[in-house]
Amino acid sequence: LTPKDLQGRRILVSAGPTHEDLDPVRFLTNRSTGKMGYALAQMARRRGADVCLVSGPSSLAAPLGVERLMVRSALEMQQVLLERFPETDALLMAAAVSDYRPASFAGQKIKRGGDEMIVRLTHNPDILQSLSSLKTRQVMVGFAAETEDIYTHARQKLERKHLDLIVANDVKALNSGFAVDTNQVTIIHRSGQVEPLPLLSKAAAADRVLDRLVALLDAPLVR
Ligand code: C5P
């Protein structure tokens, strides 16, 4: 039987990639499919939470009982999360947000030109960082998709983005990361505690992350 240990908690989950439009038919994106974020939303709902899932473009179906808001670009995702953040108890930021977007959007399809073409990109805002300054009671969980030196990079992100937990994974490892149903993650706590988990289904990995979230939500506010 699933414990209802998130009953009465409002949880905001972001998932999927973002699409950064270049012209009416082309965009920049990444390999995220949304599976980890959707699993988090589904399991949090099963454990009794009121869940709002802010999803970039994804072919996955909305989990039952979850409010889903579809967005496209990083800027759209930021806007929706900003609106929902004040009323939430925890944010699980599983989306693979594009770091850059085309500096300008071409209103018409870009024509083929010479041998080379240069596209100018501009930095997207760091959504987690922008929300951390609005943090009151919210528990914030980030995800770090790494390809090398996982622990050091994830630890730096936890500090920089003022997170309570960061869930790191090696996206180059077999059966882990993008587009598969399993994940091997390491949960890193603010305290420095490092918890490597075995290769699990994304649903099981989500449950383990939610176990940690429950503990943080139940802890006195000393953060
Ligand atoms: O810096 P990096 O993208 O690796 O950090 C990963 C974490 O930061 C994820 O939780 C991701 O959703 C979040 N992020 C963000 N805004 C960005 C880029 C990443 O909130 N522009």
UniProtKB/TrEMBL annotation:
**Cofactor notes:** Binds 1 FMN per subunit.
* Key words, A-Z: Decarboxylase, Flavoprotein, FMN, Ligase, Lyase, Magnesium, Metal-binding, Multifunctional enzyme
- Spell out the GO cellular component terms annotated for this protein, sorted alphabetically and separated by semicolons: phosphopantothenoylcysteine decarboxylase complex
Q: Phosphopantothenate--cysteine ligase: where is this region?
A: 11-223
- For the ligand (CTP), the binding residues are 99, 109, 125-128, 143, 157, 161
Name the GO terms of the biological process aspect.
Answer: coenzyme A biosynthetic process; pantothenate catabolic process
Function of the protein: Catalyzes two steps in the biosynthesis of coenzyme A. In the first step cysteine is conjugated to 4'-phosphopantothenate to form 4-phosphopantothenoylcysteine, in the latter compound is decarboxylated to form 4'-phosphopantotheine. Catalyzes two sequential steps in the biosynthesis of coenzyme A. In the first step cysteine is conjugated to 4'-phosphopantothenate to form 4-phosphopantothenoylcysteine. In the second step the latter compound is decarboxylated to form 4'-phosphopantotheine.
The family classification in the record reads: In the C-terminal section; belongs to the PPC synthetase family.
Q: What is this protein called?
A: Coenzyme A biosynthesis bifunctional protein CoaBC
Organism of origin is: Desulfobacca acetoxidans (strain ATCC 700848 / DSM 11109 / ASRB2)
